[in-house]
Amino acid sequence: MNPKFLKYSEVFSFLAFIFVIFFVLLRLDLLQTERVASQVPELEAELEKAQATADKIPRLQRQLAAARDTAEEVYALQEKVESLQEKAARVEELQAQLEDAEATAEEVSQLQEQLENAREAAAQTPENPPLIILSERNQSYRFAVGSSDISEEFETALQERIIPLLEAQSQRCNCDAIEVIGHTDNLPVSGGRSNLDEKLIRAFNQAETPNLVPGSNLDLGMMRALSIIRYLKQAQQNGRLTQIEYFLPYSAGQMLKPNHTLDTSPEATGNESRRRIEMRLLKSTAWEEQIGNNNR
Description:
Layout: H1 3-123, E1 131-135, H2 152-173, E2 177-183, H3 196-205, H4 217-237, E3 246-253, E4 276-282, H5 284-294
Helix pairs in contact: 3-4
């Protein structure tokens, strides 16, 4: 074989090999390019997401800052709520203490009244029964402003304390008459034109329950005394106060102080100690003797 031909054949083979290598490399490059090209949309999408996320960062940072501020406000409000809850609990505690104090004050007032009545009873002889005073300093004996209506609490006090006391004292002193005197403070009465001249007797006889209108403190004192008498007479119909034959209503208005001195002051005051009902047990024989002496 011709050596020159072999030399060209080797060269040709070498060039073919180079061409194959080049073709393979080119194909690999094309495949890489295609693969990269196929990833471009995905990468672009990820890039857009990244950009969108980057755009959200300032807003998220603002939201985070606002959330931190809100959390601080929540903590502050929580502290205020806890403080208010503590104060509310303290208020409830003080309210309970106040109610206990009011109840205790009421009990003290009742005990003082009972003590005064006991002292007066001890100092009295059978001929001079004690004066029973129902002062508005005691919550149980209060009338509403400008009214003569007896409250349920007042009725309970009359039924449980006063009527038994009247029964015991009337039997001890052999009394058959009760004077009931209404006292008021000296604040002006604004009830209007009085109708006591027209309706007072019917109210006393209990033929009806008229709508009495006071025109003065004297009228109001009489109306309150009459309300007490009406209640006592009703109790008598139910078997109480059987020894009492006469019920006598009076009014001192605002004229007498609790110590029974005359009040000449023009100043109007709403002193609750002035507002009271006084009850005095009497013997009708004393009237008969007095009437007999006057006729001599």
